[in-house]
Amino acid sequence: MAQADKFPRLFNLVMLLLDTTKPISLDEIARRIGGFPDSQSARHQAFERAKKELRELGIPIATHQIPGEEQYGYQIKKSEMIIPDLRFTEQEASSLAAASALVSFGSGERESALQKLGCVIAGHDAVVANIPSQPALFRLFEAIGLRRMVQFSYRSKVRSIDIYGISFKWGNWYLLGHERESGQLKTFLLNRIESEVTVTQDRSPERPKDFDVSSSLPKNRWEVGQGDLRTAAVLFYSDVAPLAEFEFGKDSIAEFRSDGSIVMSVPVVDSGSFLDWLLSYFDKAKLLGPPSLVEELKQYLNRLVDESFHVAANKALVLFESADWHDFESHVDQSAGDFVPQTGNASKEAEASLRSATAMYSVLVKILPWLAAKKSTTVDEISKTFSVSGPDVVRMLEIAACCGLPPYTPDSLLEIIVEDDGTVNSYLDMAAITAPRTLNTLEAMVLATTASAALKVPGMDRNGELAAALAKLQTSLAKFQIGLSEVDVKIEEPYFLEMLRSAAIEHFAVEMTYFAASSERISKRRVDPYQLFTESGKWYLRGFCHLTDEIRHFSVGRVISCELLNESFELPEAEMQRISRGGIPKAFGGRGDWVVLAIASDNGWMVERLVSSPRLLVTEEHLNLYGFHSSSSAWLSKLLIRLDPSAFVVFPAAFRGLKQESVQRLAASYA
Fold this sequence. Notes:
Layout lengths: L2 H17 L6 H8 L6 H17 L5 E4 L6 E4 L2 H4 L8 H13 E2 L2 H10 L10 E4 L4 H12 L1 E7 L2 E13 L2 E8 L4 E6 L8 E6 L26 E7 L4 H8 L4 E4 L5 E7 L2 H9 L5 E5 L1 H14 L2 H16 L23 H6 L5 H18 L1 E3 H8 L3 H11 L14 E4 L4 E5 L6 H4 L3 H14 L10 H14 L8 E3 L7 H10 L1 E9 L4 E15 L2 E8 L4 E6 L3 E10 L4 H8 L12 E8 L3 H7 L4 E6 L2 E8 L2 H10 L5 E4 L6 H10 L4
Parallel strand pairs: 3-4, 4-19, 6-17
Antiparallel strand pairs: 1-2, 5-6, 5-9, 6-7, 7-8, 10-12, 10-13, 11-12, 14-16, 15-16, 18-19, 18-22, 19-20, 20-21, 23-25, 23-26, 24-25
Helix pairs in contact: 1-13, 5-17, 5-18, 6-13, 6-17, 10-23, 17-18, 22-23
């Protein structure tokens, strides 16, 4: 069936199931809205596909037993989906839009919710917090909203979890809950979930009243887990000792040495996370004990260059050299990394972005409330506001004008008129599109999480319009037994963050002592702060460095000292435009050598966690090829020893032996 035919069926199905006061059978649905196949089996398959598509849009269709031959009836329960009209003031709605410009999180649900409130995100500020989202996260939000148990595979076991809370910390999302199989409270790292998260029909009991998700995770990520607690002794050499002391505090120092190095005591539960952190210091830190941890580190280093690595490296080279690169050498742009395998279908794929009925529906439900409020607009304005092509806008509106409730008499249709000159006039009855106009619980949770995180950004008014909007969201979610106490977002607050925020906003230069990971040196430099932003849970500063005479990115956590200078600077026009357009910088990339790295497809997430905006170039034969910029060989060495053993640099050829060299250099200190 053509997508244009599926679209009104999908739209009318939602309106019918929201309008009905009792569950109705599939035969009744097919009779009333039409568009379903005549065959019973084909009709059932088409309906199941529609249910799946709507569930992915955050619209669950409930199934009930009913009398009669079919036995099952269907209905969309507003009580499970719809948040009552929150009646935000214009200032409160605007504050939510401003918070969404300040905190980038859950873009689809966030933008959908704001557009239903008549708001559009327009640009960002000098301070931007970017909170990564994951597919599993929003299924967990849905489960919290429905008070349902979830199931998923984790470390090769199926887990059945009653959710107690979800926490964002150390740049990662964690799930905390009661595992029914073991009867224990457990913590799960979301990016290690090995399957889709299933929201079951089993109701979850109320969580213990004394459980506090905000204090449930320890200070460091390697203290999370179910293993035994061990205390590691780590030697930090003199050139990084000030940074280690700054990160952990003097209370963790077990020994000061005459050469300026220090030994620190670090509690460890999850050895994998601990070793990953330790290796970020490369050969500037050495693990002294306990012997069991040292042995784990040695075994890990051996695995990095064992036989499986050489097999994977050979496969990677074959894949790289056989890929259909389009004029590869001439397309390696050192400033933008502008090369891709030649497919010839990119433009067609872009044009097909709204060819599915689900995609059309998800966009239209954002447009309709906005259109109802505007009354009159143009195709061009709709296209720019919702990032949809003009022809797609016209096609959707023309189809929507034929949608409504049975029996589809003129008074029950959506009255939308598209004139020949591109003018769009609407006479919409908002009662007929209640579902698109109101927020579902997922959208409300995303907005509330965004607002809550924004209030933690330095300089935010904790008692202003945003706080009032958040209070309304909290009150509404509480009616569904959902509290924001179940979702905790922690954004690190380095010591000099507030001073740098003030400097960026007021345009004053700073002088700071900084540890550069790429050169592994500590230096003093003057910087003009342009913008603060977060990535993977860490704050970064984008600014002009007078020491290197270029724009650089600095990890705020590596600023050892900072002084605000009484010297102002002019923000360059290009930076002003980038910020006003909502441009969020990336912590890494844009400088240095362009690198192509191969890694097992199952472990591609590791590259995406450690590298900013890697480009997936090829995926084939269980291998992924990623392209990204490496700021230095030292930085690339650290990356290679933190990745899966299958990781191998295929381009440039000069770096193909870097991993073995890095492992040998590090292993020598443990010989």
